[in-house]
Amino acid sequence: MRRRGGHFCIAPGCSNEFYRAKDEGKSVRFHSFPFKRQAVLRRWLAALKRERSSVRRGARVCSEHFVNEDYVGERVIESGALVVRRTKKLKTEAAPSVFDFSSPKVGCSTRPAQTFMNTKSHLQ
């Protein structure tokens, strides 16, 4: 299936994509990497087992890799009781922590990348 554009999650084992999640009625958010907060960025990279050079500016991690405590709480009164509801915004220091490293990402090959020969030497 071809991607229609939009965001997709780069976490290991995750195949969430914006349009597929939307089509399936899933409530999944896609969070940008905290490139301006270096200490938090290092925690994200360590959690994802990724090198900084392998993460592009448009990369996203979906909400399925965060716990409720990672989100800013909104205090509201419901049925006479004070309740803290999760909002869509991550706390400043939040880092992804929910992963399944045992399964490869759907659609990804586990074989090593092919190397291409120099055209001149290949033709001779």
From TrEMBL:
<keyword id="KW-0131">Cell cycle</keyword>
<keyword id="KW-0238">DNA-binding</keyword>
<dbReference type="Pfam" id="PF05485">
    <property type="entry name" value="THAP"/>
</dbReference>
<keyword id="KW-0805">Transcription regulation</keyword>
<dbReference type="InterPro" id="IPR038441">
    <property type="entry name" value="THAP_Znf_sf"/>
</dbReference>
<dbReference type="InterPro" id="IPR006612">
    <property type="entry name" value="THAP_Znf"/>
</dbReference>
<dbReference type="InterPro" id="IPR026516">
    <property type="entry name" value="THAP1/10"/>
</dbReference>
<keyword id="KW-0175">Coiled coil</keyword>
<keyword id="KW-0539">Nucleus</keyword>
<dbReference type="GO" id="GO:0001935">
    <property type="term" value="P:endothelial cell proliferation"/>
</dbReference>
<keyword id="KW-0479">Metal-binding</keyword>
<comment type="similarity">
    <text>Belongs to the THAP1 family.</text>
</comment>
<keyword id="KW-0862">Zinc</keyword>
<keyword id="KW-0863">Zinc-finger</keyword>
<dbReference type="GO" id="GO:0008270">
    <property type="term" value="F:zinc ion binding"/>
</dbReference>
<dbReference type="GO" id="GO:0005654">
    <property type="term" value="C:nucleoplasm"/>
</dbReference>
<comment type="function">
    <text>DNA-binding transcription regulator that regulates endothelial cell proliferation and G1/S cell-cycle progression. Specifically binds the 5'-[AT]NTNN[GT]GGCA[AGT]-3' core DNA sequence and acts by modulating expression of pRB-E2F cell-cycle target genes.</text>
</comment>
<keyword id="KW-0804">Transcription</keyword>
<feature type="domain" description="THAP-type">
    <location>
        <begin position="1"/>
        <end position="99"/>
    </location>
</feature>
<dbReference type="GO" id="GO:0043565">
    <property type="term" value="F:sequence-specific DNA binding"/>
</dbReference>
<dbReference type="GO" id="GO:0003700">
    <property type="term" value="F:DNA-binding transcription factor activity"/>
</dbReference>
<protein>
    <recommendedName>
        <fullName>THAP domain-containing protein 1</fullName>
    </recommendedName>
</protein>
